């Protein structure tokens, strides 16, 4: 839709990239919110300010205008830019490229001419017969040859330099024509302003554009020998943008947005008695399907529209096609909720000034560099994998929220692994796997088996199985909190008995009691036996896997046959763990799995 200014109003034409400065960019996932500031000299009374060359990716209903001074914004219209202007800009750009190409050809011809002159000079020198020329004349010929050669060479070098510069200009203009195609910058904003007096007006426009995106990425540097803040994290934003607007030296904020979301509503859950004599008399309620015996309950992920809710629009910005003669109330800032999947604010101010061309390439921008508290632990399940993994229990002591993203991990200066970080709030503690620690060597030896029989009349087969696990710390520093887990067989038949010999762990006994709370909820308390943890060596303790862990049923310890050792190793120390158990069953019984 085109707009026309009143006959007595002034029309001011501005170009977004030339006349407007980008004050700030809020970068979201798939969108960017730009703030551009302008200055315009207005007359007293009616003025129309046209801002040209805005991108086609502009989201029309996101436009907001903010101004300061003695003027009132009466109307705002977003429309297609003038067709003649777009054609003229495209023609001018193509004409510039054509002229540069013509100039490049002229320089190329001049270079060819100079090279031909240089070749002719060399050819002439080759025709000189030194037998019939005295030395004085020969000296004159050589000096003249040297002078002319130098002149030709200097001109040739200068022409080649000019040609190279023109070549760069051609490439630059082609890139400019491609990236800043006038057809891609074909939106226009018209602002009708009523000024109380003549003077300069300062205002800003805010708008969303599509084609910009960012994802968080992390780099973790773990120093297992450092006592305080042993984990260094570099928090980065991986940014791409193809909005056809170049962002040069701008202030940048990144956020994980929650756009176009409607909060859920809950529906009544109704009960009734079915009349079996007349099944059609059951009451029908909204959300209930005909013939259903239970009401229809919408899924938890559904987002129904709240009845009676009608979204309103601020009068300050004006409808795209509405004309208002009443001065609008003070304009409000655009509020965009930035949150991750947990719905918590996650906005970051990128330090310094950032330049982001519209080239669809990935740009790594550092958000923050953090030193975090961490506790390291090692774990291994050698029955399946003899490699030792290192894990960090990290506390996010920063003010930043970690949004899910990919990570690169380095341990003690060496690359360890790639992975991903989940959502983490400030002051929240989380666990993160740092990869394999090759300095800890674990050997899972073949198990030893001894078979014996007992009993005079009814024979019983007794198998004693011994599993040895050797560990060697090849580090130059000690390690603590090394968790090794292995398993014994679990009997699924009462005729098969499995007894753990070493380590000497006993299955915990539980005394069940009740505790009455204000909500009348009964709680079970388990009192574990004294032999929950066994010291098998000065630096090794053994226990049932899951002992003391809040998410493990303590009354079920040992029923899965899982045994865990906690080992501390000095530098270059070796230790051997022994798991021994007996399997007994009647002779002639076919036992599988042993």
Automatic annotation (TrEMBL):
PANTHER family: DUF4139 DOMAIN-CONTAINING PROTEIN (PTHR31005). InterPro entries: CHP02231, DUF4139, DUF4140. Residues 26-124 form the DUF4140 domain. It comes from Psilocybe cf. subviscida. Pfam families: DUF4139 (PF13598), DUF4140 (PF13600). Residues 204-586 form the DUF4139 domain. This is DUF4139 domain-containing protein.
């Amino acid at each position: 839709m085109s707009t026309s200014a009143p006959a007595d109003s002034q029309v001011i034409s501005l170009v977004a990239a030339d006349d407007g400065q980008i004050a700030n960019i809020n970068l979201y996932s798939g969108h960017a919110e730009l703030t551009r500031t302008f200055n315009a000299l207005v007359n007293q009374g009616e003025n129309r300010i046209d801002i040209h060359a805005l991108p086609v990716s502009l989201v029309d209903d996101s436009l907001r205008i903010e101004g300061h001074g003695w003027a009132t914004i009466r109307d705002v219209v977003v429309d297609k830019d003038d067709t003649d202007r777009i054609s003229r800009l495209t023609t001018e750009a193509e004409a510039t490229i054509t002229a540069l190409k013509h100039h490049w050809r002229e320089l190329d011809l001049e270079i060819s001419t100079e090279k031909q002159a240089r070749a002719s000079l060399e050819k002439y020198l080759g025709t000189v017969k030194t037998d019939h020329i005295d030395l004085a004349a020969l000296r004159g010929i050589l000096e003249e040859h040297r002078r002319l050669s130098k002149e030709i060479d200097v001109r040739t070098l200068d022409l080649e330099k000019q040609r190279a510069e023109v070549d760069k200009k051609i490439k630059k203009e082609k890139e400019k024509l491609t990236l800043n195609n006038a057809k891609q910058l074909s939106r226009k904003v018209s602002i009708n302003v009523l000024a109380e007096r003549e003077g300069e007006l300062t205002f800003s426009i805010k708008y969303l554009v599509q084609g910009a995106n960012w994802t968080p990425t992390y780099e973790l540097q773990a120093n297992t020998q450092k006592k305080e803040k042993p984990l260094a994290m570099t928090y980065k934003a991986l940014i791409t943008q193809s909005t056809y607007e170049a962002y040069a030296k701008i202030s940048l904020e990144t956020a994980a947005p929650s756009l176009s979301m409607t909060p859920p509503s809950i529906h009544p859950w109704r009960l009734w008695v079915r009349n079996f004599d007349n099944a059609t008399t059951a009451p029908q309620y909204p959300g209930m399907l005909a013939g259903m015996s239970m009401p229809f309950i919408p899924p938890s992920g559904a987002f129904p529209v709240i009845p009676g809710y009608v979204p309103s629009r601020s009068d300050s910005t004006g409808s795209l096609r509405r004309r208002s003669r009443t001065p609008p109330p003070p304009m409000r800032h655009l509020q965009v909720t930035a949150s991750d999947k947990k719905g918590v604010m996650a906005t970051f101010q990128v330090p310094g000034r950032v330049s982001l061309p519209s080239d669809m390439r990935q740009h790594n921008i550092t958000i923050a560099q953090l030193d975090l508290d961490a506790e390291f632990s090692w774990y291994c399940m050698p029955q399946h994998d003899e490699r030792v993994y290192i894990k960090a229990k990290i506390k996010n002591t920063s003010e930043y929220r970690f949004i899910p993203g990919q990570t690169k991990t380095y341990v003690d200066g060496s690359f360890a692994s790639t992975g991903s970080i989940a959502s983490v709030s400030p002051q929240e503690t989380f666990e993160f796997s740092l990869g394999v620690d090759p300095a800890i060597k674990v050997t899972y030896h073949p198990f030893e088996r001894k078979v014996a029989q007992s009993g005079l009349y009814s024979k019983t087969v007794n198998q004693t199985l011994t599993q040895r696990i050797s560990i060697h710390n090849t580090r130059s520093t000690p390690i603590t909190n090394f968790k090794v887990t292995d398993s014994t067989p679990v009997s699924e038949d009462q005729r098969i008995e499995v007894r753990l010999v070493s380590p000497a762990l006993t299955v915990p006994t539980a005394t069940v009691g009740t505790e009455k709370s204000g909500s009348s909820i009964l709680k079970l308390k388990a009192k574990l036996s004294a032999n929950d943890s066994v010291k098998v060596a000065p630096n090794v303790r053994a226990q049932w896997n899951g002992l003391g862990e809040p998410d493990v049923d303590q009354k079920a310890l040992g029923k899965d046959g899982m045994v865990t050792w906690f080992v501390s190793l000095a530098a270059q120390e070796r230790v051997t763990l022994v798991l021994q158990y007996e399997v007994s069953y009647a002779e002639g019984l076919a036992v599988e799995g042993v």
